[in-house]
Design goal:
Helix content is about 25%, strand content about 20%. By secondary structure, it is an alpha/beta fold. The strands form two sheets. The protein has a ten-stranded mixed sheet with strand order 1-2-4-3-5-6-7-12-11-10, with helices on both faces. Strands 8-9 form a two-stranded antiparallel sheet. The longest helix is centred in the middle third of the chain and has 15 residues, at about 150-165.
Length: about 325
C-alpha cells in the first residue's frame, strides 16, 4: 500500500460554474445544510487516520500548496483482502458532503462493501470553500481558470485511502455528476493507471486528447431533457457559458481511446435506451444510457437511479 449551505445561494446562481445554472441535485441540492457555507469549518492541515469504519472529514496538502478537503465513508464488514474504492465527484458549485447526501452512494457502499471518498473541488468566491468546481479541461469555474491540477489531487487522495485500508487496485473507480462527470472523463484519460472504470451522469469530455495508458471502462448516463449539458452540444441553459461538446463526440473519442471496435449493441427497456460497445481492448466496455425525459438533476426516480446503475456497472468491470 502506498503513503497516503442559507446565505450564498444567490452567489451560487451567478458565479460562472461548470454545468449548472439552477440549484440542482448534484450541483447545489435541496438537501443543503442550514449552515451558511458548505460545512466549511476550517480544516486541519494534518490528516487524521481513516477510521476502521464510519465516516470522517480529512484534508491533505497538494504539491501546489493547497489544502484540499475530502470526506470518507467506510462501511462495516469490508473484505480484508482488499475492498473497492469509489472517488465520487460533486457537480459545479456543489461540495463533497452535499454529493454524499444527494447521490445515494453511501447506501450502495454499505450493501456492496466498498469505500467512498467525496473530495471537494476548488472554490471561486470569497474563499476557496465557495462555489467549488473541478478543472475538467474546458470547464469549470475557478478550478479551470486557476488551472488546478485536480488529476494530481485525486491521485494523491487515492494514496491516502490506500495507506489506511486494504484497497483492491483492480477496483478503484470514479463517479461524477455534471462538472464532476466531466472530471470523471478526464480521470479516465489521464489517470488510467489508477482508475479502472468510471460512471457519470450529465458530463462529457472536456480535454483535447484522451490517451489512457490502459483502457478504462466507462458508463455515461444522460437525460434526454438535459438543457444544461445538451446532448447536441453547445451552450446550455446554465450560467457556465461553456460550449460543451456533443455527446456523440465525447463517446467517439472515448471509444477510440479504449480500443472499441464496431457498432454498439442497442436495446431499450422502458425509458432507458442503452448503447454498449463491448468489444474494447482488455475487456473494457463503454456504455451510454439515455434516460427519456430526465433533466440535468441527479436521477433518483422510482424507475431509474443513477447511483445504482453506476455501481452495478463499475462492480462488473474490474481490471483484468
Amino acid at each position: 500500500m502506498k503513503p497516503l449551505r442559507t446565505a450564498l445561494l444567490l452567489a451560487l446562481l451567478i458565479v460562472p460554474v461548470g454545468c449548472g445554472g439552477r440549484l440542482r441535485s448534484g450541483d447545489a441540492t435541496t438537501t443543503l445544510p442550514s449552515a451558511t457555507t458548505p460545512d466549511t469549518a476550517t480544516p486541519d492541515t494534518a490528516t487524521p487516520d481513516v477510521p476502521v469504519e464510519g465516516r470522517f472529514d480529512g484534508s491533505l496538502v497538494t504539491d501546489d500548496g493547497r489544502t484540499r478537503t475530502y470526506h470518507v465513508y467506510v462501511p462495516a464488514d469490508l473484505d480484508p483482502a482488499g475492498s473497492p474504492l469509489l472517488v465520487a465527484l460533486h457537480g459545479g458549485t456543489g461540495w463533497g458532503l452535499q454529493y454524499e447526501r444527494s447521490s445515494g452512494f453511501d447506501d450502495m457502499a454499505a450493501r456492496e462493501g466498498f469505500i467512498v471518498v467525496y473530495p471537494d473541488g476548488v472554490g471561486g468566491g470569497a474563499s476557496e470553500t465557495d462555489n467549488r468546481t473541478w478543472n475538467a479541461g474546458i470547464c469549470c469555474g475557478a478550478a479551470a481558470r486557476k488551472d488546478v491540477d485536480d488529476v494530481a489531487f485525486v491521485d494523491q487522495l487515492i494514496d491516502v485511502i490506500e495507506d489506511s485500508h486494504a484497497i483492491d487496485p483492480t477496483r478503484v473507480f470514479a463517479a461524477g455528476h455534471s462538472n464532476g462527470g466531466f472530471m470523471a472523463y478526464r480521470l479516465a484519460c489521464e489517470l488510467s493507471d489508477r482508475i479502472v472504470a468510471v460512471g457519470l451522469q450529465a458530463g462529457g469530455l472536456g480535454v483535447n486528447t484522451c490517451a489512457p495508458s490502459q483502457p478504462v471502462s466507462l458508463l455515461h448516463i444522460h437525460g434526454t431533457a438535459d438543457t444544461n449539458v445538451p446532448i447536441a452540444g453547445g451552450r446550455g441553459s446554465g450560467v457556465s457559458q461553456v460550449a460543451f461538446p456533443p455527446l456523440a463526440e465525447s463517446l467517439a473519442t472515448a471509444t477510440a481511446a479504449m480500443g472499441c471496435d464496431g457498432e454498439p449493441d442497442e436495446s431499450k427497456d422502458g425509458r432507458v435506451t442503452t448503447k454498449s460497445w463491448g468489444s474494447c481492448a482488455d475487456d473494457a466496455t463503454v456504455e451510454l444510457q439515455l434516460i427519456d425525459g430526465a433533466t440535468h438533476t441527479w436521477i433518483r426516480d422510482a424507475d431509474f437511479d443513477s447511483a445504482g446503475a453506476i455501481v452495478e456497472f463499475l462492480m462488473a468491470h474490474p481490471r483484468p
